[in-house]
UniProtKB/TrEMBL annotation:
Span of domain Carboxysome Shell Carbonic Anhydrase C-terminal: 391-506
Cofactor(s) of this protein: Zn(2+)
Catalytic activity: hydrogencarbonate + H(+) = CO2 + H2O
Limits of the Carboxysome Shell Carbonic Anhydrase catalytic domain: 159-390
Organism: Marichromatium bheemlicum
Protein name: Carboxysome shell carbonic anhydrase
Length: 514
């Protein structure tokens, strides 16, 4: 049976690395020291495997599961640790004992000045919670960029070659900024960040002008540098939009930006893709170089539906290929039989007017990767995540946070200025009113702007942009900021030379050491 879903229109490797986290069963410390150049904690065990390179799908899934648990435990440890520290606040040796608890349970120490003021006005628990959240983000980020825990570096060159073979010189993906899609690259689709660019926007409603600017940069690089191929090569730029829906509670846990209306979310994503393609055609008369693809993700199971385009490159909302049905059909089949089955399903989904062979090949690869993810969700969560709704830990503002590849970890608000991203940020703050403010906890906001280190003055401009956005956030939510219920931490990163992120300021001076 071919797994095509048709609905009436309008309806719904290798070398050993030292990991950042201990391999402890409960709440492992995430970092030994936040301020050290390389934050690591020694651990015994087998050498990590490069995901998607030389390892098997089962090995990949175990590794991804271990990584997700380590990060989850690191964030889960914050609140109980701070409760223990709060109970020590009247102790004569409070600062030393508090730092011992923080270092043992979280892997880093807390700001001494905040602890030393406890005897005067009590502990500022909101500041400590925000600091601990940011320090955990710092350790997560260091691990990603310095240790490549998901093995993305090992897959980048191979996938770039594969894309070119399929007829695409670039793949740019916009998921909804909902945290339940934060893992769409590294887990749901098993793709390498860097080769595949991600820019999250609420409702997957990306800024068309910004998308045109990104396309222009890509094409200029092909003309000037011949990367990833020369401009005369017959390849195309692929823009992907990823909307989401909920199979468990479709009326309430779908996309908030579209009122949990699946059909509306899909239609809006497709309309944005068409607008981008039309903008390129009207501006540069080269529409043949643009392909579009629409993907839906069930946030409860990670199964995907791919709206396969026809030969003219036009996706249809009412026709899609569903990975969940394919997952049931391929049980018990060998590797080659699974791939043959997937290819046959993709070919059948194209009907009498199928897309190019390259597009079919890419879609088949995405389906294959997602079937591995469905095996992962089945092994780790019995086929369905226990949390249907939002459980994000912090809001990411500014540029994309490449290191965030885990479900329900971050709500993204992509922007260069607050004005252009205010609507997205408002949605994130509303989510955190329920998650954090209702319990008296602050909203941690990480501001991030990457910069090209080879460009003179780029770092200074990135720092200035961080400062400007952080100040605008405080002005937009003055009551929350004044009560210590919203804290920001500004970071920059040199995208040309890689390495760690750099903390360049925050809403409290004590955070300058982050």
């Amino acid at each position: 049976m071919v797994a095509i879903r048709t609905t009436p229109r309008g309806q719904r490797g290798a070398r050993r690395r030292t990991p950042l986290w201990r391999a402890a069963p409960v709440h492992p410390p995430l970092a030994a020291s936040v301020s050290s150049p390389v934050v690591t904690v020694a651990v015994d065990g087998p050498a990590p495997v490069m995901v998607g390179a030389t390892s098997s799908p089962d090995q990949d899934n175990r590794r991804l599961g271990d990584y997700a648990r380590r990060v989850q435990h690191a964030f889960e440890a914050i609140e109980p640790t701070l409760r223990r520290i709060a109970a020590l606040s009247q102790d004569a040796d409070f600062v030393r004992r508090a730092q011992h608890e923080a270092h043992a349970r979280l892997g880093f120490e807390l700001p001494v000045s905040v602890l030393e003021r406890a005897w005067i006005g009590g502990l500022d628990m909101r500041a400590l919670f925000a600091y601990a959240s940011f320090a955990t983000v710092r350790a997560l980020s260091d691990d990603y960029f310095l240790n490549d825990p998901l093995g993305m570096g090992g897959r980048a060159a191979a996938f770039e070659r594969f894309l070119l073979e399929c007829g695409f010189h670039a793949m740019n993906l916009t998921p909804c900024s909902d945290g339940r899609l934060a893992h769409v690259i590294g887990y749901v689709l098993r793709l390498p960040m860097g080769v595949v660019r991600r820019k999250a926007h609420a409702g997957a409603l990306f800024d068309v002008e910004e998308a045109v600017r990104r396309w222009t940069e890509t094409e200029l690089r092909r003309h000037r540098e011949g990367l990833p191929n020369t401009a005369d090569a017959p390849t195309r730029y692929l823009k992907v939009a990823v909307y989401h829906h909920s199979s468990r509670d479709p009326a309430h846990q779908g996309c908030a930006a579209h009122g949990s209306d699946d059909a509306r979310a899909a239609a809006a994503g497709l309309a944005q893709l068409r607008a981008f393609r039309e903008a390129i055609e009207n501006s540069y008369c080269c529409g043949a170089s643009i392909d579009i693809l629409l993907i839906g993700v069930d946030t409860d199971t990670d199964r995907i539906r791919i709206h396969l385009p026809d030969a003219a490159g036009e996706p249809a909302l009412e026709r899609y290929l569903d990975s969940g049905s394919l997952h049931a059909e391929i049980r018990g089949l060998g590797t080659q039989a699974v791939r043959d089955h997937i290819r046959a399903a993709v070919s059948a989904a194209g009907g009498a007017n199928p897309p190019t062979a390259g597009m079919q090949r890419l879609v088949a690869r995405l389906i294959e990767h997602n079937l591995e993810q469905l095996d992962y969700v089945r092994a780790e969560h019995g086929g369905q995540y226990p949390d249907a709704g939002h459980q994000e830990r912090f809001i990411g503002v500014g540029g994309d946070l490449a290191e965030v590849q885990l479900r329900n970890l971050t709500f993204f608000a992509f922007m260069r200025t607050l004005e252009e991203g205010a609507a997205d940020l408002d949605i994130g703050v509303d989510i955190f009113r329920r998650l954090n403010l209702a319990r008296g906890l602050p909203i941690p906001v990480v501001v991030r702007f990457d910069y090209p280190g080879r460009v003179p003055g780029a770092r200074a401009r990135a720092v200035e942009r961080c400062t400007r956005v952080a100040e605008a956030i405080a002005r937009r939510y003055p009551e929350l900021a004044a009560q210590g219920l919203l804290h920001t931490w500004s970071t920059v990163r040199d995208s040309d030379h890689g390495g760690r992120i750099e903390g360049v300021g925050g809403s409290l001076s004590e955070w300058e050491g982050l």
